[in-house]
Amino acid sequence: MLKLSKLATAVALVVAGSAAGAGEVEVLHWWTSGGEAKSVGELKSIMQGKGHTWKDFAVAGGGGDNAMTVLKSRVVAGNPPAAAQIKGPAIQEWASEGVLADLTPVATTEKWDSLLPGVVANVMKYKGKYVAAPVNVHRVNWMWANAAVLKKAGVASAPKTWDEFFAAADKVKKAGLIAVAHGGQNWQDFTTFESVVLGVGGAKFYNDALVKLDQKALTSATMTKALETFRKVKAYTDPAAPGRDWNLATAMVIQEKAAFQFMGDWAKGEFTAAGKVPGKDYICAAAPGTANAYTFNIDSFAMFRLKDANAQKAQGDLAAAIMGTQFQEIFNLNKGSIPVRLNMDMAKFDDCAKLSAKDFVGTAKSGGLVPSIAHQMAVNPAAQGAIQDAVSQFWNDDKVSVADGVKSIAKAAATK
Ligand code: BGC
Question: Does residue 407 sit in the same domain as residue 268?
Answer without folding.
Answer: yes
